[in-house]
Design brief:
heterodimer; A: 228 residues; mainly alpha; MetI-like fold; flat; B: mainly alpha
């Protein structure tokens, strides 16, 4: 099937999935830090978070990726030269791709998490404190479980967009699924077949994600009454 | 920062902005024309109308736009029927393929936005129209669509900005748009910071202009749904 290129395509799929999951981990951390910063009492911290989300959401991901891949190369080498290193450091496209996608979706998740945090009524936190819980206990028992519930719809959406934007890492030379499909297309002169196969695999990933995250949403929303 | 190099390359950036805007406006206009009937069909009770549209939007929204672009630009050439057709002079052009891809893509997303806004119409409005004896077509053009289009504005403004960013993919298939201009400058002078930061500044400016335009449009057409500034403070319900 697929002229024997199926294993190569599946290997590329693994790279794509690994890029997506690694950038998701970075994005979740950045998103939590960003949401905390946006709700901070210190104006400077709020300003930095504001600049981060505004700039990242105003520039195409491809431009940011090219900036980090090519620009990072120069920055890293300048830094290495300063510390007396004489060789040439190559930035790995995997690192550049994961860093860029994580950085971008950190900004989107910042908004998702911020929205989820402010959706929790302040009185609940006050009630927890009044019961003598520590701030950490209030976060773990009151804020976090509800925040997860409020954040899941936005999180699902961002994850789907993230998976799809991993396709652009092939532009900086990463051997992901798009790259494998391109190689196979060139070798067999059947580009439609292989990009269609890549599209089907992406559709499978996004469909399974929607099913899984939908089930998760239902399980954390047990006990939530809906108006309609 | 090598500002001389940026100033020297400025004309090609301006040209790139022009191409980016052309791609964006062409795709948005054509996409909206396709999305409107699709959105109405998607919101219809008739499964023969709504299901085919659902399949289209599901596939468009479930796959990366880069895959869609490659399928059209590289993929279609696989078929002799396409290569010998009258459309081939167009389909062999990167610019045309980019517009075609972006149009289909934005149509898929916009159809769902319109359908969602139509479903959110309060049913009393339809009942009122029915009780006045309006035929279905009139209910659609006088009641459903005007208010649905207004309510779709906030979601549509997001889609427009995503589309602006999406047009940067055209540079992958050799179109010299704004991103293409930056990539050209980078490969010529190897000044990646200057090249891509300049493009980023232009994209930011375009994003902010679009946001401002939609802000104005929402004030103009959606003002009646905005929270009143002097509204009395109502206790928000406690989530259970």
């Amino acid at each position: 099937m697929l002229h024997g290129f199926l294993p190569a395509l599946l290997e590329g799929t693994l790279t794509t999935l690994s890029v997506a999951l690694a950038s998701l981990a970075i994005a979740v951390v950045l998103g939590l830090v960003g949401a905390a910063a946006k709700l901070s009492r210190i104006p400077f911290v709020r300003g930095v978070a504001m600049a981060y989300t505004t700039i990242v959401r105003g520039v195409p991901d491809l431009v940011l990726m090219l900036l980090i891949f090519f620009g990072g190369q120069i920055a890293v080498n300048a830094l290495a030269a300063k510390f007396g290193f004489e060789g040439y450091v190559d930035i790995d496209p995997y690192v550049a791709g994961v860093a860029t996608i994580g950085f971008i979706f950190g900004a989107y998740l910042t908004e998702t998490f911020r929205g989820a945090l402010i959706a929790i009524h302040a009185g609940q936190r006050e009630a927890g404190l009044a019961f003598g819980m520590s701030r950490a206990q209030v976060f773990r028992r009151i804020t976090l479980p509800q925040m997860i519930r409020f954040a899941i719809p936005g999180f699902t959406n961002n994850w789907l967009v993230l998976v799809k934007s991993t396709a652009i890492v092939s532009v900086i030379g990463l051997t992901d699924m798009m790259h494998s499909a391109g190689m196979a297309a060139g070798a067999t002169r059947e580009p439609f077949t292989f990009y269609l196969a890549a599209g089907v695999i992406y559709l499978a990933i996004t469909s399974l994600s929607m099913l899984g995250l939908g089930a998760l949403e239902r399980s954390v929303s047990v006990g939530l009454r809906r108006a309609a | 920062m090598n500002f001389d190099a940026i100033i020297e390359a400025l004309p090609s950036y301006i040209g790139g902005v022009g191409v980016t805007l052309q791609l964006l406006v062409a795709a948005l206009l054509l996409g909206l024309v396709i999305a409107l009937p699709m959105g109405v069909a998607r919101a219809s009770d008739n499964p023969w109308l709504s299901k085919p549209v659902w399949v289209f939007t599901y596939v468009i929204r479930g796959t990366p736009m880069l895959v869609q672009l490659f399928l059209i630009y590289y993929g279609l050439a696989q078929f002799e029927l396409v290569r010998e057709s009258a459309l081939w002079p167009l389909l062999s052009q990167a610019w045309f393929c980019a517009v075609l891809t972006f149009t289909l893509n934005t149509a898929g997303y916009t159809a769902e936005i319109i359908a969602g806004a139509m479903r959110a119409t309060p049913y009393g409005e339809i009942e009122a129209a029915n009780s006045l004896g309006m035929p279905r077509w009139k209910v659609l053009t006088r009641i459903l669509l005007p208010s649905a289009m207004r309510r779709a504005l906030p979601a549509y403004s997001n889609e427009v900005i995503f589309m602006l960013h999406g047009t940067s993919l055209a540079s992958v298939v050799t179109v010299i748009d704004l991103t293409g201009a930056a990539r050209e400058m980078n490969s010529r002078s190897y000044l990646p910071f200057e090249a891509f930061l300049t493009a980023a500044v232009f994209y930011l400016a375009m994003t902010f202009s679009l946001v401002a335009m939609f802000h104005f449009a929402e004030k103009r057409w959606l003002g009646h749904l905005a929270p009143r500034k002097s509204a009395p403070l109502i206790a928000t319900s406690v989530p259970i």
